[in-house]
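User: hey, got a sec? need Lipocalin/cytosolic fatty-acid binding domain-containing protein folded
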Amino acid sequence: MKTVLLTLLLGLVCAAQEAPAELEPSQITGDWRSILTAADNKEKIEEGGLLRAYVRQFECSDRCSSLSIKFYVKIQGECTLVNIVAQRKGDVYHVGYMGANFFEMLPISDSTLAIYGENSDGVKTTKVTQLLAKEDGVTQEDIQQYEELNKERGIPTENIEDLTETDDCPP
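Assistant: Yep! Here you go:
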């Protein structure tokens, strides 16, 4: 009897687990704007930080097995365009930029997307997130979901930076 109950319980738990929704290329490809960013090592995302990026565009290739990313970083106050290509393995993308990185893309709404990544610079691993929008604005609900993502990943809410305040890079 215990075996039957345990089997039933295990079946219910497995059924309750949702598989992560796979993003379609049309949900990713296009122009995006960085709205918020956060990290467990805040100095990496503060102004002048090595991981403070202003995303502009994603382009999927081969059903998103590779992802071209265009973004700006500020070097000594000047916007510098960076183009990189990330390769997908499962649900995670891998790319070399300021160390080894992996990240996953998480849909928030039709016009917003969160990115969770980890950057290993050879000394320390930093957890980083960004909230991106197809338009400049996001809803309060989008922000709440983004804050919840940060809590789940161990990134303090006080480490969230508003990128729109310093984004003066070209569109």
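Quick note: The first helix runs from residue 2 to 16. Let me know if you need anything else on Lipocalin/cytosolic fatty-acid binding domain-containing protein.
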